[in-house]
Amino acid sequence: MATKRKALSDSPVKKWTNETPNLSFSLNIQHRDDLTDSQKQILEAALDKEVKCIVIAGPAGTGKSFTTILASLMLLDLHVVKEIVYLRSLVQSKDGQTGYLKGDLDEKTQFYNEALNQTLTELLPKNDVKRLEDSEKIKCYPTSMLRSYNFHNAAVIAEEAQTMTFDSIFTIATRLTPFSKLFVIGDSINQNDLGKLSGFKKFIEIFGDEDSYNNGFRYFKLDSSQIVRSPFVKFIVQKVEQYQEKHPEKLIS
């Protein structure tokens, strides 16, 4: 079971101010020599001080979560940011509901944060992961609890943004203060549990232009040819894409 992290409602406001200290130890981030060109470009953008928001759209298996968590750890280790904030919308799959979940906020949301936990253990030694958790350098919150809070010197990851409304993404983006970076990642075509209520495509349409680029936005669109999870996943996604191209009237939902 994942280590329990403090809930936003229990955290004092000072956790979100410049009083938060820098990381007091170095991270032993695992070197990866198997990164794709797109992943390297995303990391380069993340380390650019002029870049404020990185938007990544792509199908399952393209390494969106992995790359943004790696970038956030690098920023934390370099003292560019003081903490990592991982955000998820508590939207359940549209093929069914789990019903009432017992426990406090951390217990209710721990399953939504497993992608983060898995990637942390893949990139860091267990001791480093524990030290990050003990020092509260990684915080996990649902998007429904962000109003009135600001992110200071933080790497903010809006995970599975296709399950967020435009208002939720807009709220996250407007909580940023100087020296923070925002990663908005999602699948703009598939795995959308909100249907027409999803605001991810709209966010891309508004902030994917040259004016936004000149103001610190970077947009990366990944496709099925860049899937790295496994050849089998790549086959599945590309097979579905071929079907949708041949039968646009039979959209898979």
Which terms would index this structure?
single chain; 253 residues; alpha/beta; 6-stranded parallel sheet; 13% strand
Q: What is shown here, in short?
A:
This protein has 253 residues and is of the alpha/beta class.
SSE arrangement, N to C: HEHEHHHEEHEHHEH
What is the share of helical residues?
Answer: 25-40%
What integer value in Å does the Rg equal? 18 Å
Structural class: alpha/beta
- Shape estimate: globular
Q: Using DSSP, what is the number of strands?
A: 6
Side-by-side strand order of the widest sheet: 3-2-4-5-1-6
The fraction of residues in strands falls at: 5-15%
**CATH fold field value:** Rossmann fold
Distance between the termini: 32 Å
Supply the CATH superfamily name.
Answer: P-loop containing nucleotide triphosphate hydrolases
What does this protein look like?
This protein is an alpha/beta fold and 253 residues long. The chain is 34% helix and 13% strand. It is built from nine helices and six strands; from the N terminus they run αβαβαααββαβααβα. A six-stranded parallel beta sheet has the order 3-2-4-5-1-6, with helices on both faces. α1 (37-46) runs parallel beside α2. Residues 1-18 have low confidence and may be disordered.
